[in-house]
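Proteins fold reproducibly. Take a tokenised chain:

. . .
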Amino acid sequence: MKLFFYRLFRIQKIKSWLWSLLKHGNLRYFVVNTRYKFLEKNMRFLNYENESIGELTVKYNLTAFDIPRAAFGCGGRMEPLIYPIVSYYRKNRNLIKILVVGCRSEDDVFWLRSYGFSDTYGLDLFTYSKYTLIGDIHNTGYPEGLYDVVLLGWMISYTKDPATVFKECKRILKPEGLLGVGLDHNPKQHVDGIKPPRMNPLNSSGEIKKMLDETISHKLVYEYDHYCEDDGRCVIISKMMPN
């Protein structure tokens, strides 16, 4: 019996070590890109009728697979969402349940798993992977208080009703669970207006905070807002508070 548990422990240690290798971006890119080539045939889509979802959302995100560096990693844009979570949870990461919404590929999920968050899954309107659940974040149907962390990884721009998304995230998050929201600035939005596939006017960390304040009870944990002439990224991570 002791030998059995020793071998089981060794197997778990080896698995953890193999996952940890995927912290390296180039190796992770190779793994997820290669897996996609084998798993693409498994692609399936959610049959949804939700007018809050932008009409071009699925079509636009599928085009990213034509440029692998866009579908897998997307220039490392998830860094300001993932690294604060890594810093926040220093121990017992295997017990932290994380949902990455709008992940598109396995990259974000594998990135978090490489840091020991072994109970991390994606959620999207389409999937080819067992690591990505299929569903609609406007109404997941999940039990209340299921997740410790929900990350809206650059998907909030594709909804016409971000308030409903935030409310659903709070519902499925545990008390004091973390909600992370990331999006790209559009420096010309104030001039050109909102152009598809973007579906709502959120365009800065301040605007995300304002809508969160108006929608749910939360406490700001982390804010990142980088803005330049041609590009920008902003991230808000908030702790869910009692209503």
About this structure: The two ends are 50 Å apart (CA to CA). The longest strand covers residues 173-184. The chain has one domain: 2-240. The longest helix spans residues 2-20.
